[in-house]
From TrEMBL:
InterPro entries: TMC, TMC_dom
A GO BP entry: vestibular reflex
Lineage: Eukaryota, Metazoa, Chordata, Craniata, Vertebrata
GO cellular component, one term: plasma membrane
Keyword Transmembrane: yes
Protein name (database record): Transmembrane channel-like protein
Organism: Oncorhynchus tshawytscha (Chinook salmon)
């Protein structure tokens, strides 16, 4: 205690000396301590301990700079290593940024066209990563085991081109329609064998096919929801919420570390585009409008768009029904258009309707960001309606194929029974060998799963062709005409018709989402479709980046993209759910083909799971699975999930309202402080 009192007294005297030297008028009661009071010794010891720790830390940090000899050299070495570590971390962060695929291309697009156009390419990059993982699942667990451990081509009928089709199996026209050797390859469902185990590893291919087909949806759902949760932290709709927006942009936008002239040009263009975005937001906030006229025009626009949606759905249903009639005719008598009428009409509707919707949307005069969301929703309804109309008509064809397959199966069974009875009676034996028939000569059913897969692949290829031709003709050729004929034309081609094209954000985004929906639905019937989509997305990134930088101009009303991409993700989540329904209906309801695919010979596709549980797993796991699939447990679980979702949604809305109230209070306090500063300056 004596040592503590001595240290206190010396510390107080030093403090008073410092204060006196600095001539600071500090009251003496700030330094008075109740040393005699025993209850204050504990607090005093804690305070002195913290002060001592701060002093020790200060001395340890700077004693090398104040010392001599080895201590000073060691300190200099520590400072040098700390600076090198800071530089290494900065360079490593730059390296990680450079390793992000197409980051520089997207930044260049953003600097010239704004964040709204760049958001499409960010979404395209995200879709490429998702499909790359899906391709790894499908190729590693389905395609590769069949190629490495399955039976070779020509060994069984499902892996052999029929004798009647072999003469034209390699014709270009047949291969472009995915017939011939393409139809009997690893691209489609019918090629895969139905044996429970294959190869020396005893790989369960049918079980793997089913689990991968369903696991694609599960993994996609997990990734989409996780991305939406991450984006929700950013929040906001893209508008400028703070005050003094233009002052901040004017004085704090430039990056003084830029040393590359090209980077400086991109930064200059980015700042200019950012000012345009903020000006549009400010103009929309101050705009006055006739509300009654605006409501009438918006109702009229929605009525016209609903009529267009209904007409497109009817046209697709009519074309699919007509294609089913063509399927019963001789294919040699049909023209190219009649063979590909469905794909042509669906691609043409996807090409014509979005510009029509955009023209009708001019009546509504929404903010560009809101107008984009309406346009996305309408094109989404168009694509989704067209796709489901196509599916309904396609399942009518599937039912017809099932009836035909049933008759062929019955005839095959009758023929085998006749062969066995005749052979047994003629040779008077029960050891009957199988019929000696070449695989190419075996009568087989239509294999409706492969037919569905071919339709999805043809739709995807047709969509790729239309998209690329639209860019080549509608953007590149148009830009060439405007660029080189503008000097010798009657009017200004750049300012008037046709002018340079603008990048269609809504059409391209919905094209990606619609294409991904086809991939999710078609991957179960055509495992090679995922790989085809990976190539499509890879080429689209380079092709569209080149097109937008060389052929397009920024929008007349540049607007800021939403801070969160959850609107895109919400549409993608809805497409994922709607794509799951036809696949689940196929697995649980429709019988598989009897002579093709990994589920042939079973009543339902999901029976492969029950076979695995019964033959390869302990009995109690089968009991658990039976209890878990009991409707008495499923319905309460679903009800509990719905209630949990409702509760979380209500809680989220309450948090949002609380955040809005806090923002209002902070803004009021800021305005009050600003007013007080003004009044004090006037005094």
């Amino acid at each position: 205690m004596r040592r503590l009192d001595f240290f206190m007294s010396s510390t107080l005297s030093n403090m008073h000396a410092v204060v006196a030297a600095c001539s600071l008028p500090i009251p003496s009661h700030h330094w008075s301590f109740q040393v005699d009071n025993l209850s204050s010794h504990g607090l005093l010891q804690i305070s002195l301990t913290s002060n001592l720790q701060e002093c020790q830390a200060f001395v340890e940090e700077f004693e090398g700079a104040l010392g001599k000899g080895k201590g000073r050299k060691l300190y200099a070495y520590k400072v040098m290593m700390a600076k090198k570590m800071i530089k290494f971390n900065r360079d490593f962060d730059n390296f990680k940024t450079a390793c992000i695929p197409w980051e520089r291309k997207i930044k260049e697009v953003e600097s010239h066209f704004g964040s709204s156009v760049a958001s499409y390419f960010i979404f395209l990059r995200w879709m490429y990563g998702l499909n790359l993982v899906l391709f790894a699942f499908m190729f590693g667990l389905v395609v590769l085991p069949e190629v490495m451990m399955g039976l070779p081509y020509g060994s069984i009928p499902r892996k052999t081109v029929p004798r009647a089709e072999q003469d034209r199996a390699m014709d270009i026209s047949v291969l472009l329609d995915f017939g011939g050797y393409c139809k009997y390859s690893i691209l489609f469902y019918g090629f895969y064998n139905d044996e429970r185990t294959i190869g020396v590893l005893q790989f369960r291919l049918p079980l793997s096919y089913l689990l991968v087909g369903v696991g694609i949806f599960g993994y996609s759902l997990m990734v989409v929801i996780r991305t939406m949760a991450r984006n929700s932290d950013e929040g906001g709709d893209g508008g400028d919420d703070g005050q003094f927006t233009f002052a901040f942009k004017m004085f704090t936008s430039w990056d003084y570390l830029i040393g590359n002239p090209e980077t400086a040009d991109n930064k200059y263009a980015s700042i200019t585009t950012s000012f345009k975005e903020s000006i549009v937001d400010e103009q929309e906030n101050q705009k006055d409008e006739n509300i009654h006229l605006r409501r009438f025009l918006r109702v009229l626009a929605n009525f016209l768009i609903l009529c267009s949606l209904g007409g497109s759905g009817f046209l697709i249903y009519f074309v699919v029904k007509r294609s089913q009639e063509f399927a019963n005719l001789d294919q040699d008598d049909l023209s190219w258009f009649e063979k590909n009428e469905v794909e042509f009409v669906m691609s043409l509707l996807g090409l014509v309707c979005p510009p029509l919707f955009e023209t009708i949307a001019e009546l509504e005069e929404y903010h560009p960001r809101i107008a984009l969301k309406w346009q996305l929703g309408r094109i989404f309804a168009l694509f989704l309606g067209n796709l489901y109309t196509f599916l309904f008509a396609l399942f009518d064809e599937v039912n017809a194929k099932l009836e035909k397959e049933k008759s062929i199966r019955n005839a095959t069974i009758w023929g085998l029974n006749e062969y066995y009875s005749n052979y047994s009676s003629y040779h008077n034996t029960t050891d009957i060998p199988p019929p000696d028939i070449h695989p190419a000569d075996v009568i087989r059913g239509p294999c409706w799963e492969t037919a569905v897969g071919i339709e999805f692949v043809k739709l995807t290829v047709s969509d790729i062709q239309v998209t690329y031709m639209t860019i080549l003709i509608g953007d590149f050729l148009r830009a060439m005409i405007v660029r080189f004929l503008n000097y010798c034309w009657c009017w200004d081609l750049e300012a008037g018709f046709p002018s340079y094209g603008e990048f269609d954000i809504s059409g391209n985004v919905l094209g990606l989402i619609f294409n991904q929906g086809m991939i999710w639905m078609g991957a179960f019937y055509a495992p090679g479709l995922v790989g085809l989509n990976v190539l499509r997305l890879l080429t689209s990134m380079y092709y569209q980046c080149w097109a937008v930088m060389s052929c397009n101009v920024p929008h007349e009303r540049v607007f800021k993209a939403s801070k969160s991409n959850n609107f895109y993700m919400g549409l993608l989540l809805l497409v994922l759910f709607l794509s799951l329904l036809p696949v689940v209906y196929t697995i649980m309801t429709l019988p598989p083909s009897f002579d093709c695919g990994p589920f042939s010979g079973r009543e339902q596709m999901y029976n492969v799971v029950m076979e695995t549980i019964e033959n390869d797993l302990p009995a109690f796991i089968g009991n658990i699975f039976t209890y878990a699939t009991n409707p008495g447990l499923i319905l309460p679980a679903v009800l509990l999930m719905v209630l949990a979702i409702y509760y979380l949604n209500a809680t989220s809305k309450n948090y949002q309202n609380a955040n809005l109230e806090l923002k209002k209070k902070m803004q009021m306090v800021n305005e009050h402080d600003h007013l007080n500063c003004c009044l004090s300056s006037l005094k």
